[in-house]
Design brief:
The structure is a single chain. The chain is of the alpha/beta class. It has a single domain, classed as Rossmann fold, CATH 3.40.50. The chain is about 25% helix and about 30% strand. The strands form 2 sheets. A 5-stranded parallel β-sheet has the order 6-7-8-3-9, sandwiched between helices. A 4-stranded antiparallel β-sheet has the order 2-1-4-5, with helices on one face. A hairpin with a 2-residue loop joins strand 1 and strand 2. Helix 4 runs parallel beside helix 5. The chain is globular, with a radius of gyration of 17 Å.
Length: about 200
């Protein structure tokens, strides 16, 4: 997979949050989009994911030199962000069954194995509405990291996680992100210190 940003700029009303980003992300590879809170990291990640339009410029997607239409990219992308909503009326098992009816789990993983990875077996039949913020974040990360997609996009992945949760996240990334195109929006080095390439949003003001 290859994602190319050509003159990507984003404006809210009269204020440009970033301008003229030209960059190519290639698989396999791990990239970090860096900058302080409010600088536009999350917006850039949503534009890369095809979830939000740029004000100027274009994003192109290629797989084995074949161009993929933006409307077809969603099946190839896994996404996790603090603002992402869960279907809180569902239990963990019901949510994972629903999610993995649209996307396959990574080879060797099953719903039961993913539940075990989260460490939430005792709460598996409770509605997600009853979960703490840290438990919900583990669920969000599990559905993204454990999906069999070539592109993995994570926005501040350790939000609401304690030390155990952060260690779990790093273990999952070590085990399940190899050979994928990983892009992480963050200002916390623990989330991205394995990323070889850095894009600093404030360089594009």
């Amino acid at each position: 997979m290859k994602i190319t940003l050509e003159h990507i700029s984003k404006r809210f009303l009269r204020y440009w949050i970033f301008k003229d980003i030209n960059y190519t992300f290639t698989q396999p590879g791990a990239y970090a989009i860096l900058g302080p809170n409010g600088c536009g990291k999350s917006t850039a990640l949503r534009i890369i994911a095809g979830m939000q339009p740029a004000s100027m410029g274009k994003v192109t997607y290629q797989n084995n030199e074949k161009t993929i239409a933006p409307t077809d990219i969603f099946s190839l992308v896994s996404f996790c962000a603090p603002g992402m909503e869960l279907v809180e009326e569902l239990t963990l098992r019901e949510f994972l069954d629903f999610h993995f009816s649209f996307k396959r789990p990574l080879p060797g993983l099953s719903i039961e194995k993913i539940i075990a990875l989260t460490g939430l077996q005792e709460a598996v039949d409770k509605p997600l509405a009853d979960y703490s913020s840290g438990m919900k974040q583990r669920v969000k990360l599990a559905q993204a990291i454990c999906s069999d997609t070539p592109i993995l996009l994570l926005d501040e992945p350790c939000t609401n996680l304690d030390k155990t949760g952060i260690a779990q996240y790093r273990e999952w990334m070590e085990q399940y992100s190899k050979n994928r195109l990983v892009i992480i929006a963050s200002n916390d080095e623990r989330e991205y210190d394995f990323c070889k390439e850095h894009i600093v949003i404030e360089d594009y003001k």
